[in-house]
Amino acid sequence: MPEPWSSVDEVAKHLGVAQDSIYRWIEARGLPAHKIGRLWKFKLSDVDGWVRAGGAEGGEKVASKNRTKAKRGRS
Length: 75
Hints:
By secondary structure, the chain is mainly α. The chain has a domain at 8-52. Helices cover 37% and strands 8% of the residues. It has helices at 8-15, 19-29, 44-52; strands at residues 34-36, 39-41. Strands 1-2 form a two-stranded antiparallel sheet. A hairpin with a 2-residue loop joins strand 1 and strand 2 (39-41). The relative contact order is 0.23. Mean pLDDT is 85; it is low at 61-67.
């Protein structure tokens, strides 16, 4: 059975952080996410791997120029 896609709210609850942190981490730290329409979607296995690799540690990192900027609300 394929892994379901998770929302920002579900990922925030999974990691025990605020939703704003998730949006910041997409933009500044490369949190693995896919934008589907106006919504960001995640595979929790990718998020867990990112955390284990140190993605959530330390200070803010500069976002890649090719990465879509994380925005809330209407596009």
